[in-house]
Amino acid sequence: MFCRNVLGGLVGGLALVSVTNLQLTPAQADDRMRLGAPAGRPADFQTQAGDRVFFSEASVELGLRGRVALEAQAAWLVKHPSLSVIVEGHADDGGGFDHNFELSQRRADAVSRRLIQMGVAPERVRTVAYGRERLVAECAAAACAAQNRRAVTVVGPPLDTAAAGEAAPSPRIDPPFRRSPRRLN
User: Fold this and answer.
1) How far is CA 6 from CA 9, 66, 89, in A?
2) Which residues contact 31 (CB under 8 A, 6 or more apart)?
3) According to the 3-state scheme, what is the secondary structure of 5-69?
4) N or C: which end of the chain has fewer CB within 10 A?
5) d(C-alpha 107, C-alpha 128), whole Å
6) Which strands sit side by side in the sheet containing 125-131, from one edge to the other?
7) Longest dimension (CA), the chain
8) Is CATH 3.40.50.2300 what the domain over 40-163 is classified as, yes or no?
9) The whole model's pTM is what?
C-alpha cells in the first residue's frame, strides 16, 4: 500500500512538472496577455453596465434580461456623452452564411434602436454585423450556440476624435527583443 501511494505521488508529480513547463508560442502568449481587462472607459463600461445582450434562436426580440442590460448601458452612456459606441451583432443559428449575417445585422439594429430610444444620441451609435465570424464558443451543444447569439456594445473613441477622422491611439507594442521574458502558464 505504501509503495502504491509513493508511486502514485511520483507519477502525479511528474505529470504536474510536465504541465507547468509548457512553453507558449509568442502568438499564444500575446493572445493570453490581451485577455486581461481592458484599461480605461471600456473597462468601466463592462464592469458597471455590462456589454452583452443575448437572443433566443432565430430571434431579434429583446427579452427581459436584454432590456434590463440595455437600460444599464444607456444610463452609463448618457453619463459619458463624448464617447461613441459600436454595436456588434453576432449569430450562430441554423441556416447559411447570408441568413446568419442578416440575422446578426438585425440584432445589432435592435440594440442600437433601443439605446437611441433610451436617450443615447444616434450619431454616437454605429452597428456592424459579423454573422458567425467571431464565435465565442464552438461546440455542438446548445449552450455554445446560445453564447454566440448576442450583440456586444463596444465603447469607441470620443466623438471629437472620431469626427475628425483620426484613428484612436494604438497600444504601444514593444519589439520582440524588448518584451518581458516571463512565461504565462
Assistant:
1) 5, 54, 55
2) none
3) HHHHHHHHHHHHHHHHCCCCCHHHHHHHHHCCCCCCHHHHHHHHCCCEEECCCCCCCCCHHHHHH
4) N
5) 10
6) 52-54, 150-158, 83-90, 125-131
7) 75
8) no
9) 0.66
Question: Which residue is listed with cell 447569439?
Answer: 149
* 3-state class (DSSP) for residue 152: strand
HEC string of 60-115? CCCCHHHHHHHHHHHHHHHHCCCEEEEEEEECCCCCCHHHHHHHHHHHHHHHHHHH
List the beta bridge partners of residue 12.
Answer: none
**Residue 79, C-alpha cell as written in the block:** 453619463
Rounded-to-integer distance, Cα 36 and Cα 24, Å:
17
For CA atoms 148, 150, 151, 153, the dihedral sign is negative
Residue 129: count other Cβ atoms within 10 Å of its Cβ. 21
Q: What does the pLDDT look like over 51-110, one tens digit per residue?
A: 999 999 999 999 999 999 999 999 999 999 999 999 999 998 788 999 999 999 999 999
3-state secondary structure of 153: strand
Q: Record the cell numbers describing residue 99, joined without a space.
A: 441568413
Cα 136 → chain centroid: 8
Q: Coil, strand, or helix at residue 155?
A: strand
Nine cell digits for residue 56: 433566443
